[in-house]
Amino acid sequence: MEHNFKYLDGGICAAQGYKASGTYCGIKRPANDTPDTKHKNDICLFTSDVPANAAAVYTQNKVKGAPILVTKANLEKSGGKATAVIANSKNANTCNADGVEKAQKMCDLVAEELGIPSEEVIVASTGVIGQILPIEPIEAAVPVLAKGLGYNKHLEAATAIMTTDTVKKEYAVAFEIGGKTCRLGGMAKGSGMIHPNMATTLNFITTDCAISSEMLQKALSEIVKVTYNCLSVDGDTSTNDMVSLMANGLAGNDEITAEGEYYETFKAALYEVMANLTRMLAKDGEGATKLLECICEGSKDKDTAITVAKSVVCSTLFKAAMFGEDANWGRVLCAIGYADAEFDINKVDVTLASSLGEIEVCKNGAGVQFSEEFAAKVLSADEIEIRVSLHDGTYNATAWGCDLTYDYVKINGDYRT
Q1: Residue 395: per-residue pLDDT
Q2: Which of 297, 332, 360, 377 could staple 396 via S-S, CB 3.0–4.6 A?
Q3: Which among 86, 4, 10 has a CA at the least distance from the CA of 42?
Q4: Contact 172, 7 (CB under 8 A)
Q5: pLDDT value of position 35
Q6: What angle do CA 77, 88, 113 make, to 5 degrees?
């Protein structure tokens, strides 16, 4: 089914009824801090004008940040309802004895300020693991955030959740359901410690479409599998990964409560936003110079296509080769070969492509003659596509990653200190 989506500005504020704000509160003050130093926002708040149906997915790391535990409990208590989200950067509030207490306190502060139940607050944190989260700066910031809420303040929020990110990440679209115009938008953060299982980084998505909490959760879980879960920067699954999705129904369409045409349209819009945010996350990988996009086609089933595509973008050796603009196709075949899936390696074709051209490097599991000079030109672009054909069926999947550079080591060598 063809879907017509219109791109919108506004990120989490693109849909009707969502306000946002962000500020700097000093959760982690730099060593060279002076009174006239200009700081980036480190905490944000966004709200729905009415309680929204909500869904979320969380990290599968056994070590979970306190905000994950509190948010999960809140959504269970509220019956899948949320009205506000508070999120901070620079401190993950993970592996702390008082972590749950601090995360719950953040929810209580927002609830008191906005006059809403505490269980209708989603809380998220990102940053350094194992450092005590100072609550005093947050206590001072919440009234400022509440007072500063605005329907056009999405940038303040998007910058507040950035850590080693070099650019903010937002995407939003409009679509039609039952003659009503609906909007769906999101923001994301993430540059390193990205290798998802259920979710990745911090991602917040809002919509004014009317859809039940149950169908919202179903759609989110399905689309996470083919977007964020097909993303890898460095093979490390974060302790604080979360994707939350809110739907306040202000578009006025009849509520989607079951599968069907309208559910498929909503899911397609959700994919459009989440896939674009996934590409942004991959392209902004720590130290990255190239976006890698592996498309596996001709698979006997979806899971096999996902497994093969992700195996390629996760290969450290292949990522390093792409940084060096070296068409070392053997590393692609190696990564395909150890993928946990069943297929005939003797049928596999591989093509490398970019805006500067394309070149077939492998046919039926064996190398073919190609120009190394032309291959280097193709790989000099900042977005590289790796096409893998299994010739074993009709299913396709895409995975996203980035090259591995010297700067990745530099960034992570002294990240904490």
Answers
A1: 97
A2: 297
A3: 86
A4: yes
A5: 57
A6: 60
Rounded Cα distance between 26 and 32, Å, is 13
Q: Is 338 left (phi over 0), alpha (psi -120 to 50) or beta?
A: alpha
Place of tokens 């390629």: 312
- pLDDT under 50 in the chain at which residues? none
CB 57 within 8 A of CB 89: no
Closest alpha carbon to 17 in 46, 45, 43, 44:
46
Structure tokens given for 364: 């039926």
Q: How far, in Å, CA of 296 to CA of 19, rounded?
A: 40
pLDDT at position 39, please?
A: 82
DSSP output for 140-159:
HHHHHHHHT-BTT-HHHHHH
Q: 3-class DSSP state for residue 292?
A: strand
Rounded distance between C-alpha atoms, residue 225 and residue 266, angstroms: 16
**Strand, helix or coil for residue 372:** helix
Residues in the chain: 417
And the tokens for 172?
């939003």
Rg (CA), the chain: 22
Mention every residue, 6+ apart, whose C-beta is less than 8 A from residue 15. 172, 182, 183, 184, 185, 206, 207, 208, 209, 248, 250, 251
Q: Which amino acid is at 336?
A: I
pLDDT of residue 417: 66
H or E element, residue 409: helix 406-413
Output the pTM of the full model.
0.90
In this prediction, residue 197 carries a pLDDT of 64
- Token pair recorded at residue 81: 């309802």
DSSP assignment of 212-240: -HHHHHHHHHHHHHHTGGGB-SSS---SS
Enumerate residues 6+ apart whose C-beta is below 8 A from 133: 27, 88, 91, 93, 96, 99, 102, 125
Torsion, Cα of 90, 226, 282, 165 (10° steps): -20
Contacts (Cβ under 8 Å, ≥6 apart) of 207: 15, 182, 183, 184, 185, 245, 246, 247, 248, 251, 266, 269
The residue among 151, 148, 159, 152 whose CA lies nearest residue 189 is: 159
Residue corresponding to tokens 């700067």: 407
Q: 19 has which bridge partners? A: 47
Of 200, 201, 265, 304, which one is the catalytic site residue? Answer: 200
CB atoms within 10 A of CB 81: 19
Q: Active site includes 83? A: no
Distance CA 144, CA 156 (A): 13
